[in-house]
């Protein structure tokens, strides 16, 4: 009241009416989440030594064990139970057999419990061996082991109003009942009693001294506040039937008989009675209408009637009841009457005993459980749908399993607890919201996958466009020499489309290329995983034109591992071969030419290469010429003047330079010559070429012309 500024109870009550959220804040203030691992160690020792072994003995080697921790707070109590049972059963057997349901009203505490992360101070009470075995230590925090955590199911539950979880072997409700009024305790204790199996155990807190004084429980260890369930049997009067007051006229027996007959005939349950000789001795009105039993059928042998085998075989069940003395129940048997809707019948076969305890007949009771069966199917269908979603989120898994158990318990009390079913439906709506949230996350994931798929498709199209654009043949083979890729160049040259050859053995293709000659190189590539030397061979394209092909074969490697196939790169070198042949031919002609050809270093002007004509006219050997600069052969020009003369050519100012000079032979004789020099800067390395023409004959012809002009007449 101080926090919200209220002076009295009336003002605070009015504040609550106006602000519903204040109820939540008030509840969080009142609830005391006081808990710790193995709180009250002596009581836990008794539980481990005296109680859990009895549960394990009763369950055998494979029976499931169900435990409920009511008011679990931040999870220390259910995790203590998990460690205790894992020590006795082993982790594998624990995960297979044990389910621990942990419930509380405080959502914040439940969230902390689901994360199972505790500080060093909070785990001080955990024995050191258990701490090392069942907790992971990281960043100063202790996280409970994941495998065991999956078997602990947390959920929000109000033990006063919500349906209890059923078939519980051990129920722990420590220091919760002391906060409840006596009337509320009277509501809670029967719910805890109902939740336990007949020989189940209740473990209360040390402060709860008077609450266990109930005829529903008996003490196992009063000091440790451990109790066992006392089964509540249905009791009837000593006479085995009801009695009524007489009318004073001695007709009490007849009146009682008529009353009993009216009660039985007006019942919605069908009853048949078969005596020890197997004769049908009784059928109430509902049974006669349901199974078409006539008046004359009373007194006939039961095995002669249709009801003895329809809706199910009952003669063996009657015999079983007579031999064992125990009731037999047959659930939800399908039954259809002519012109009526199909229905489900639950049949109970029970012995009828006289006052001395001896059986004298067998009673067959038929209950219409069609609606329960349909509801059960709906619940089971909802359960299957929820279990499918369990794997997606761990917290959703815990909520779904808790809800599933509540649904099963609600189904058992469906006819008397409609309000509990409504509470469960509200929890299902909450789960549907979580499922919708999960669906949104899946849609985001799908969008991401779709984007990645588009990127992969774009990358594939990009790769295919590269293959189509390459002006050589690309053929990709797998390790069985089956064609995997065939680019456009190959389609144009060999006349086969990619779709026609993909998946076909390469060595079986009928194309202008002699593929059989490549068998051995391809096998060597797959074995050695090393590129082979290029192979040149003659082929014929799809137009019948003969071409020369240069084929390079490389291994197809994945992450630099073993070869997964081979790649063939095929080039049409027909024109190149012709060009190479022509160049070779031209080189031979120039080499044999009588004209002088000098290849010079553009820096030192030393002779790098000369043809046969220059070699013969100069009289020097090729080795001797490589030691001589061109201007050294010209007595009338020095190196500086020659460099200035050639400079415009080397600088790109002129395409060629032509000049006349005198060249000295090896024997010292001189001869006039005309030099034409060109610089090929694009070559690697750049080269300076000089073409020399001997002009001796030209001068002689010139002298003859002068003489002719000077001659008389």
From TrEMBL:
Q: In what residue span(s) does the CheR-type methyltransferase domain sit? A: 1-230
Concerning Pfam families, the annotation shows: CheR (PF01739), PAS (PF00989), PAS_4 (PF08448), PAS_9 (PF13426)
Q: Which InterPro entries match?
A: Bact_Chemotaxis_MeTrfase, CheR_C, CheR_MeTrfase, PAC, PAS, PAS-like_dom_sf, PAS_4, PAS_fold
Keywords assigned by UniProt, alphabetized: Methyltransferase, Plasmid, Transferase
Q: What molecular functions are annotated in GO for this chain? A: S-adenosylmethionine-dependent methyltransferase activity
What biological-process terms (Gene Ontology) are attached?
methylation; regulation of DNA-templated transcription
Positions of region (Disordered)? 395-418
Looking at the record, the residues that make up the PAS domain are 256-298
Name of the protein in its database record: Methyltransferase, chemotaxis regulator
């Amino acid at each position: 009241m101080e926090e919200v500024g209220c002076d009295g109870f009336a003002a605070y009550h009015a504040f609550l009416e106006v602000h519903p959220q204040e109820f939540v804040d008030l509840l969080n203030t009142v609830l005391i989440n006081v808990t710790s691992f193995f709180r009250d160690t002596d009581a836990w020792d008794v539980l481990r030594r005296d109680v859990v072994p009895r549960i394990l003995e009763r369950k055998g080697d494979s029976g499931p064990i169900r435990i409920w921790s009511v008011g679990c707070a931040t999870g220390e109590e259910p995790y203590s139970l998990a460690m205790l049972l894992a020590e006795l059963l082993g982790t594998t057997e624990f995960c297979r057999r044990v389910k621990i349901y942990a419930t509380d009203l405080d959502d914040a505490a439940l969230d902390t419990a689901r994360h199972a992360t505790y500080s060093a101070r909070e785990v001080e009470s955990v024995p050191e061996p258990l701490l090392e075995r069942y907790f992971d230590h990281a960043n100063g925090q202790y996280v409970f082991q994941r495998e065991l955590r999956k078997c602990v199911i947390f959920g929000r539950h109000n033990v006063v109003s919500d349906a209890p979880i059923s078939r519980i072997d051990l129920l722990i409700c420590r220091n919760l009942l002391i906060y409840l009024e006596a009337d509320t305790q009277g509501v809670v204790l029967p719910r805890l009693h109902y939740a336990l199996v007949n020989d189940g155990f209740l473990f209360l807190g040390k402060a709860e001294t008077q609450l266990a004084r109930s005829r529903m429980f008996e003490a196992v260890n009063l000091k440790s506040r451990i109790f066992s369930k006392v089964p509540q049997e249905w009791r009837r009067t000593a006479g085995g039937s009801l009695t009524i007051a007489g009318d004073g006229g001695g007709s009490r027996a007849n009146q009682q008989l008529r009353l009993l007959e009216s009660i039985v005939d007006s019942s919605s349950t069908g009853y048949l009675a078969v005596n020890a000789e197997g004769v049908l001795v009784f059928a109430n009105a509902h049974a006669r209408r349901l199974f078409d039993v006539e008046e004359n059928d009373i007194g006939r042998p039961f095995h002669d009637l249709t009801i003895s085998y329809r809706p199910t075989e009952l003669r063996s069940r009657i015999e079983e009841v007579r031999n064992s003395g125990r009731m037999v129940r047959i659930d939800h048997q399908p039954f259809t009457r002519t012109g009526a809707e199909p229905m489900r019948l639950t049949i109970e076969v029970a012995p009828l005993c006289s006052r001395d305890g001896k059986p004298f007949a067998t009673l067959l009771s038929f209950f219409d459980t069609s609606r329960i069966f349909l509801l059960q199917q709906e619940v089971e269908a909802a359960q299957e749908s929820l279990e499918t979603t369990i794997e997606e989120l761990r917290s959703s898994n815990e909520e779904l399993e808790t809800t599933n158990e509540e649904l099963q318990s609600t189904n058992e009390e469906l006819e008397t607890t409609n309000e509990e079913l409504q509470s469960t439906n509200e929890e299902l709506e909450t789960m549907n919201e979580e499922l919708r949230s999960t669906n949104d996350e899946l849609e985001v994931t799908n969008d991401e996958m779709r984007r990645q798929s588009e990127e992969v498709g774009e990358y594939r199209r990009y790769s295919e466009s590269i293959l189509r654009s390459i002006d050589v043949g690309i053929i990709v083979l797998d390790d069985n020499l089956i064609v995997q890729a065939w680019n456009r160049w190959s389609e144009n040259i060999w006349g086969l489309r990619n779709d026609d050859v993909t998946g076909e053995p390469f060595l079986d293709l009928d194309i202008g290329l002699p593929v059989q000659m490549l068998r051995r190189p391809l096998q060597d590539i797959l074995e050695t995983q090393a590129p082979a030397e290029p192979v040149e061979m003659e082929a014929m394209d799809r137009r019948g034109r003969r071409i020369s092909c240069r084929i390079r074969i490389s291994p197809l490697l994945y992450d630099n591992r073993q070869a997964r196939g081979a790649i063939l790169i095929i080039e049409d070198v027909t024109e190149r071969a012709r060009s190479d042949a022509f160049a070779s031919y031209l080189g031979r002609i120039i080499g044999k030419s009588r004209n002088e050809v000098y290849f010079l270093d553009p820096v030192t002007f030393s002779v790098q290469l000369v043809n046969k004509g220059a070699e013969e006219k100069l009289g020097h050997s090729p080795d001797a010429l490589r030691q001589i600069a061109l201007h050294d052969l010209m007595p009338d020009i020095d190196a500086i003047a020659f460099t200035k003369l050639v400079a415009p050519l080397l600088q790109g100012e002129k395409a060629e330079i032509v000049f006349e000079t005198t060249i000295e032979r090896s024997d010292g004789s001189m001869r006039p010559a005309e030099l034409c020099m060109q610089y090929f800067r694009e070559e690697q390395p750049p080269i300076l070429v000089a073409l020399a023409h001997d002009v001796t004959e030209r001068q002689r012809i010139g002298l003859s012309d002068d003489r002719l002009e000077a001659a008389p007449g």
